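Morning F.,

Quick status update on the modeling queue. The single chain you submitted on Monday has been processed. Sequence for confirmation:
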Amino acid sequence: MVLYCHVIPALTDPSSIQMPNLSLKGFRVILSASSLTRCGFVFLLLFLYSCASQPYRYSNKQYRKQAHALAKSLEVQPDTGITSDSIRQPDRWIGTVNFGLRKPNFVVIHHTAQQSCEKTLQTFTESPREVSAHYVICADGTLYHMLHDQLRAWHAGAGKWGQVTDVNSVSIGIELDNDGLAPYREAQLQVLLTLLDTLKQRYRIPSANFIGHADIAPGRKVDPGINFSWERLAKKGFGLWYGDTLSLILPESFDARTALKIIGYDVHDQTAAIQSFRLHFMASQRKGELLPEEKKILYALQLKSME
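Structure tokens below.
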């Protein structure tokens, strides 16, 4: 059960104000100022002020309870352990309530596709949604660590990468506050790079295992989207990339389906896999058969994946 609290505007004539609906433990109660005693009204104001100043009090309590049930060592709220001037620290900790036990070996990058970072935080703290992530990076560079890295977030959904069919159980999910259309802000990307470097060193995650949501769910997901620079990440050691392909000779035996599969794509729907490949490695939404230059890029990535 989620308690929604609303901020009350400054009151000049309390008796003329219709109070907002409050949902408490399954009961919907409509309160009017005229029906309250003076003491009751003051108490209600104090109650609503407390709710407004601590909107995630309930979800944080649930997080601690669930973490304690899984392991006593996880009772302590998570901390990024990162100290950097480029990171804007939030003024409160927010823990998600949706998780299970897991071990990280991949990092999956998403975009939120929501109207604001606050909306994403609300979504991840509502139990019925059954969706969460380990980290949320707001557009202004604020970094929220919502779930211990060792616990299983619900961010990947139905997806596959290589032989991994349960991506949630082996991955860390990072959500970037972005609607999928706007360019990513530099402050946000700087925080992402710092975080990725920390995770890579902390868990010894292979460079090839930094991927996007679209990579593991071709045809279903497109995030982190066409405006995300995978090449920039790859130059820092996060994800595969290709070099100069002008002098690369494509063998007659080259098979695009095999190459996609070796890289990690689910080729059950080869057309969708090609679209995800284009989105990641060429920032392109072009459809149709692979062009000769695209085949070369695919072949170059195949060779890197086999190293």
